[in-house]
Design a protein that fits this description.
This protein has two domains: 69-162 and 270-276, Immunoglobulin-like; 168-265, Immunoglobulins (Immunoglobulin-like, Sandwich). The chain starts with a helix and ends with a strand. The protein has helices at 3-32, 261-267; strands spanning 69-77, 83-91, 97-109, 115-125, 130-139, 146-158, 168-177, 185-193, 199-209, 215-226, 231-238, 248-255, 274-276. It has 279 residues and is mainly β. The longest helix is centred in the first third of the chain and has 30 residues, at 3-32.
């Protein structure tokens, strides 16, 4: 037998061995390995993740949002003895996560850190949003020294394709003292809903500041059912005189996006959310 015949014979034998080994392995695999399921701890079938997505149902996403940041927390006398108005400016540092709902508690504290009074509320905050929280007419047993804000029960939602908060603009804002009126002064202006969405309600908050930027008074009002491209005038009255001179007027509109169906459909997915306590 020549060397070439021996090489051909050896190659044929090796090829047959490889063929029978592959045949045996594939037969064993298909006979012993179970069909893919939604409980096999593998990403297979049409799944988007391990045992979830596609025919296995939606994947549960667990979010770990950053805490809400407090940028300002202060109080001003309301004009009535022992009664104060409370202001908190907060910021959501998350890029895509907004809190559909959270509880906040203003803790009004004395010189020794004791809690003199509390005021609670619920609100929401969009991704990368800065907003103001107000509590009007909080009664305290003695003059406060500081305000602390505690957050809890935050329900976070991921926004898809979200870029900016609802487009609400304010024009012709004015502040002036009034005469021949039971009120001390008033702030007026025009709200314009430049968004593509109708909103069930829009809150308008007015903060009056002195030349040093310190708040001297604030108030808020609600506008119901504000349609896309609609303009509406607002008027907020301050019933009592307050200390300090007003140098600037800030007007902050806030749309109730979590009760606006078309906004929800566009920006908020149907995935599950996480409840998280933020302190």
């Amino acid at each position: 037998m020549t060397s070439s015949e021996r090489a051909l014979k050896r190659g044929t034998i090796i090829g047959l061995i490889v063929f029978f080994v592959a045949l045996f392995w594939s037969s064993w695999y298909f006979l012993t390995i179970p069909d893919p399921t939604c409980f096999d701890k593998r990403q297979n079938q049409d799944e988007d993740g391990i045992d979830c997505g596609g025919s296995c149902g939606a994947c549960v996403v667990v979010y770990t949002p950053e805490d809400i940041v407090v940028r300002e927390a202060t109080f001003v006398p309301s004009g009535e003895e022992g009664v104060y108005d409370i202001l908190g400016a907060i910021y959501n540092p998350n890029d895509e996560l907004g809190a559909a709902s959270f509880t906040y508690t203003f803790q009004v504290k004395g010189s020794s850190g004791e809690i003199l009074a509390e005021a609670k509320g619920r609100n929401f905050i969009l991704p990368q949003e800065t907003k103001t929280l107000l509590a009007i007419g909080v009664r305290s047993s003695s003059r406060p020294q500081s305000v602390h804000i505690v957050f809890s029960d935050a329900t976070w939602e991921k926004f898809s394709g979200y870029q900016e908060k609802p487009v609400l603009s304010i024009r012709d804002k004015r502040y002036e003292k009034v005469t021949n009126s039971p009120f001390f002064s008033e702030a007026t202006g025009t709200l314009s809903n430049d968004s593509l969405f109708d909103f069930g309600s829009i809150s308008v908050k007015v903060i009056l500041r002195d030349v040093n930027g310190r708040p001297v008074a604030f108030n808020q009002t609600e506008m119901n059912t504000v349609l896309s491209k609609e303009e509406r005038d607002f008027r907020l009255r301050f019933p009592r005189a307050f200390p300090g001179e007003v140098a600037t007027i800030e007007v902050e509109p806030e749309a109730d996006i979590y009760h606006s169906e078309n906004f929800i459909k566009r920006y908020i997915g149907t995935g599950k959310f996480q409840e998280r306590e933020s302190k």
